[in-house]
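Chain A, query sequence.
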Amino acid sequence: MLIVDKPAGLAVHRGPKGGASLEDHFDALRFGLPRPPALAHRLDKDTSGCLVLGRHRKALAHLGLLFKHGKVGKTYWAVVEGGPDVDEGTVELSLGRLDETRGWWMKPDPNGLPSVTTWKVLGRGEKITWLALTPVTGRTHQLRVHCAASGWPIVGDNIYGTAPRFTGPPQLLHAREVVVPISKNKAPVRVTAPVPAHMQDWLRACGWSGEDLETQ
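Chain A, predicted structure.
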């Protein structure tokens, strides 16, 4: 297993329109193995932070089961517009595909797949809030849709939020930590990604000290 700190603005794999992707560089991550690693899960192009790769087929199959059954702990940091009135809670909102022409865009849908996110306020600023988000399920765009549907969209989200399509601020969603129980007889592997430069001033405005604090 490898865990990399993915930069915002770089797709994890090449889309139908082509363009640069993180997968283009996987050959440099073989470290002696005959094949490059492969994605164990995905992050949106504009989301930064912890991304898990399997180094070979057996590892990928094992990681795939861990993700499928919700055994991998994931914590995201986000800065949202406005914010909730209380300091922690849960969003339970089923999600479905928006329509066939919009690819992976999602929408709240009572007939869709069950989706659950827990959240906790880590700090508040002027008209913005710093949240720790934990996806209990792993639906496409889940955190972005859940935040927007709750009335506090993620800053810079130009699909579900209020950001302009091309000229707004970068999306402020960061895969802060993953906890992977890769071995039965050892403690889970816990990896924390440092706060990226494009989020630091926003987090400071919400009370972040600038130190790499644990989320707990």
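Residues 57-68 form the longest helix (12 residues). The longest strand covers residues 73-81.
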